Amino acid sequence: MTELDARQTPPMSVNRRARRGATAAAALLVALAATPALAAGPTRQEAPARTAQATRTAPASARTPLARGALLSVTPLERKTRAQVVEFVTGEGVDAAAARHGTASYRLTYATVTPGGAPTTASALLVLPTGGGHRLAAVSENHGTLAYRGNAPSTGDNASRIAAQLYASGGRAVVAPDYLGLGTGPGTHPYVDNRSSVSASLDALRAARTAAAQRGKRLDGDVYVTGFSQGGQVSMALGRELSRGADRHFRLRALAPVSGPYDIEGSELPGMFDGRVAADSAVFYLSYFLVAQNRLHPLYTDPREVFRAPYADRLERLFDSEHPDQEIFKELPRTVKELLTDEWYERVQHPSGVFAEVIRLNDGVCDWAPRVPVRLHTASGDTDVPIANARDCARRLAGHGVRAKVTDHGSADHFGTYLEAVSDNARWFARLD
Fold first, then answer.
1. CATH topology classification for 16-263+362-432
2. What are the structural domain ranges in the chain?
3. Buried b (16+ CB within 10 A) or exposed e, 371-385
4. Which are the contacts of 246, defined by CB distance < 8 A and separation ≥ 6?
5. Cα 311 to Cα 344: distance, rounded to the nearest angstrom
6. Cβ atoms within 10 A of the Cβ of 40, count?
7. pTM of the model
8. Structure confidence by residue, pLDDT tens digits, 108-126
């Protein structure tokens, strides 16, 4: 089995070291008024929610209808001086030249919707600069693949916190959504469901606008959108919605996704069979994707249709947002061939039926014309998300008349690409001011 770097995990993901996050708090539940999801389709299963008392006071009446993005609670997490930010960021191998201020971090709980449009809650990390002006641009920092809720940006030592600290120290409000079913959000995570990840990310920006105002900071409406791996894909989709005027308070300013699986059908899946994606990464991502998507779409009625024994009896339990990734890896096979039945081994290589429809629902995030600067970060050495994904994205953007700069970080692995991109993005955002 291919060994992943000590801080590298599967496509759409963050490093294994970051998976040691703290125990997640249970979700705050309130009775919300049903609000249509952002282009959401029907869902087969909505996981039961869990209840617990919020860290801070929620709205006075649980019966009050709440709009999407309504702020429910704010939990202070930590404060860092500029020197501490520099020490933290450089300790992770990131250039901290863009750091100018100290930072204050908070966990937000807010109202949003499930993939089927039902009311629910989610959490996010908000990091504000403690110095500088009172009007701030925002950075939406979207994280990579996480299976364990305790490793989300607002609840654990997630790699997104490296970027969040540096971007905030540079003078911006950073919003890092946990997505649905991670952090303190109820249920399971609808992995690689772009529609719900985008709606949760947009609602996190709305909640952050309120939370920042309560702390004497005003978001000026400009949004720099970035993210790593799964978050790179989410970033392109979120940027598209912002450019369409999804919220009158926010304007897309720049796009800088990192190592996103923008082309699942044409690049990511083939890479799992031709060696471009490391074997253990392929098993992890594919297992997670099939289990999570089956909760939304009718891929199978019995796990034994898709997965071989003994994995068919354990995967749905493992991908429940409650198991740390290390535990999941221990119970997975070494190869995709050992994971899938003969029928599904062929189907994944040649998608058809509902499976093909599901993939196409989440592909195409680069099929539009951004009217802002775009940078795509990738690496020839990435064995989680092959460089072909970024090349396909650049080609699709070019088809719409948009020239995106593609930065190849050479021999860097998946997580190494992210670290280099964070430094580059911090300097680039500063020049765009």
1. Rossmann fold (3.40.50)
2. 16-263+362-432
3. ebbbbbbbbeebbbb
4. 38, 202
5. 14
6. 19
7. 0.87
8. 999 999 999 999 999 999 9
